[in-house]
From TrEMBL:
One GO term of the biological process aspect: DNA repair
Protein name, per record: Exodeoxyribonuclease III
Residue numbers marked as site, Transition state stabilizer: 160
Alphabetical UniProt keywords: Hydrolase, Magnesium, Manganese, Metal-binding
């Protein structure tokens, strides 16, 4: 495998990320034009396949290849993968319940399998949380199958779970809330114990964050009161090639084009 740079970003609505939140021509399209990434995973596109291709037309004209999984409910979820290399194959998650939800898509490109995923937000002690847990179980089974296949793989996206106290600024205030529940954190711990590697944390072991999501409300962004919920989980053989990881945090609140920031990892050849 040659060197590979992979980014992930929850765009919080593809059309808004391109137009409505793009003062002074800042937004997703200029970012795609400037990024050094070879592969970009998008989440929460909130667009069907045709709308997504239309929104990304300038990037596709520049040579990006696109695979996408549209949401089953209008205006919800939706994931996609952009690659500067040909996409040899793409797959949805095999599930009667979640296969068409637009929450998981994997693609074979540049010699690796890259997946873009968007786990539900959830809400403690409600059916929404039970749905989240069912998807987590489905995802865990797919991850075990990828490991068994022995192919280099990295799963990128908005996991909507802060794993440890270092991954959330206000952890004390969120102990009983979805996204920081003991059961969710234990599930992530089990994935890591099975051999998956949280690449960003491996490269930044002793820091708070680096956070990748901040509420639009209040001064969360200005005060860096965020959550680290956008992960790259890589198979062990691929993870040892990770040489750098960074969160591309906007220089100012007014320059944000999503409530998330891109998280970028470079793997050596």
């Amino acid at each position: 495998m040659s060197s590979l740079i992979v980014s992930t970003i929850n765009v919080n609505g593809i059309r808004a990320a391109i137009k409505q939140r793009s003062p002074e021509n800042l937004g997703l399209l200029p970012w795609l034009a400037d990024t050094t990434a070879d592969v970009v995973c998008l989440q929460e596109t909130r667009a069907d396949d045709e709308q997504l291709a239309t929104a990304l037309a300038p990037a596709l004209a520049d040579g990006w290849h696109l695979a996408s999984a549209e949401p089953h409910i209008k205006g919800r979820s939706g994931v996609a993968i952009l690659s500067r290399h040909p996409i040899e194959a793409s797959r949805l998650i095999e599930s009667d319940e979640f296969g068409s939800h637009g929450r998981y898509l994997e693609a074979d490109t540049a010699g690796v399998t890259v997946a873009s995923l968007y786990i539900q937000t959830g809400e403690a002690d409600t059916p929404r949380q039970l749905e989240k847990e069912r998807f987590m179980a489905t995802l865990g089974a797919r991850m075990a199958a990828l490991q068994a296949a022995g192919r280099d793989a990295v799963l990128c996206g908005d996991w909507n779970i802060a794993h440890t106290e270092a991954d959330i600024k206000n952890w004390k205030g969120n102990l009983k809330k979805s996204g920081f529940l003991p059961s969710e954190r234990a599930w992530l711990s089990e994935l890591l114990a099975s051999g998956w590697v949280d690449v960003v944390r491996a490269l930044h072991p002793d820091v708070a964050g680096p956070y990748s999501w901040w509420s639009w409300r209040g001064r969360a962004f200005d005060n860096d009161a965020g959550w680290r919920i956008d992960y790259h989980l890589a198979t062990a053989e691929l993870a040892v090639r990770a040489v750098s990881a960074r969160v591309e945090r906007a220089a100012a609140y007014a320059l944000r084009w999503s409530d998330h920031a891109p998280v970028t990892v470079e793997f050596s050849g």
